Structure to design on (325 residues):
């Protein structure tokens, strides 16, 4: 099993949509996939579940999210609880919750306590890992896809501790580039900090601890505009700066290899903006590449749906190969 986090502290790049579509594609390819919503905005959960279904579960108090699993820790009344898994088609989902933000302060205060040998601090910081690991074992998932919020806070630090690999969704613009420059050093700092805590963990820790690898596994360029199969000039000038910036900021290479954006081995894919098809897919509560004429995908949309399937199929194959699946 591999756990892959999709992370950029620049919001609005299409990260949640990317995770959603990849989960469906891996399921289409026969892989058991667990999607995990660790963004306190819970956008991934709302993409998978209809508004009617969410309203029903929330009104009945029967939606059990990751927040419910960590609630005993928040209330200082015990340890984590198993998270209920929602099944959508062939996909398994650990639902998110807006209330998860209540866990932020506790995760923050327990980070330094680990260095003082506090076993309880290790329980708090590994909560996400242990919840995800238990759920993945329960369904025999081969791959876990984590969606996290666009920030560098304590929730995301604990999410990254649970991640084997990290993929960066990017948009070809200045702020996305700056976000990547912030993210690279932060990931290294978190990785080194967790390694130090693992070395100094006290006796009596009788529960599984993650390795906290959070290895960079490449980036996905999102939402570019296309003219004659090439990004338009306004996007292209930022895209051409990404390969060098990724090597320097994320991979921490002192010598940057001069490669073009088209030939960058760290680029996993370049996905176009599907515009009206995205709204159509959201209304139908299905991925773009599952749209049919009954959903309104007719005429030129049919070609775009097929192209979307090919793009995500290739991307899923590459991610799977990098993850050893």
């Amino acid at each position: 099993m591999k756990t892959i986090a999709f992370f950029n502290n620049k919001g609005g790049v299409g990260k949640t949509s990317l995770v959603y579509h990849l989960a469906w594609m891996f399921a289409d390819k026969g892989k058991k996939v667990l999607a995990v919503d660790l963004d306190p905005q819970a956008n991934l959960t709302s993409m998978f579940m209809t508004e009617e279904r969410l309203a029903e579960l929330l009104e009945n108090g029967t939606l059990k999210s990751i927040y419910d699993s960590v609630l005993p820790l928040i209330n200082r009344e015990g340890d984590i609880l198993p998270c209920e898994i929602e099944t959508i088609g062939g996909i398994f989902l650990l639902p998110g919750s807006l209330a998860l933000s209540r866990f932020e302060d506790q995760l923050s205060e327990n980070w330094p306590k680990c260095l003082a040998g506090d076993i309880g601090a290790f329980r708090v910081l590994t909560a996400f890992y242990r919840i995800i690991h238990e759920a993945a074992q329960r369904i025999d998932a081969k791959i876990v896809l984590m969606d996290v919020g666009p920030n560098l806070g304590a929730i995301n630090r604990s999410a990254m501790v649970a991640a084997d690999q990290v993929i960066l969704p990017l948009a070809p613009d200045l702020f996305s580039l700056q976000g990547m420059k912030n993210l690279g050093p932060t990931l290294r700092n978190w990785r080194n900090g967790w390694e130090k805590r693992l070395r100094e963990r006290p006796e009596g820790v009788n529960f599984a601890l993650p390795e906290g690898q959070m290895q960079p596994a490449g980036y996905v360029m999102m939402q570019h505009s296309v003219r004659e199969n090439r990004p338009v000039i306004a996007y292209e000038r930022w895209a051409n700066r990404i390969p060098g910036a990724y090597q320097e900021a994320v991979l921490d290479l002192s010598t940057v290899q001069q490669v073009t954006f088209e030939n960058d081995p760290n680029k996993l894919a370049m996905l176009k903006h599907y515009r009206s098809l995205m709204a159509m897919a959201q209304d139908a509560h299905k991925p773009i590449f599952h749209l049919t004429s009954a959903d309104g995908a007719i005429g030129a949309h049919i070609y775009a749906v097929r192209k979307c399937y090919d793009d995500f199929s290739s991307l899923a194959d590459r991610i799977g190969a990098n993850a050893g699946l």
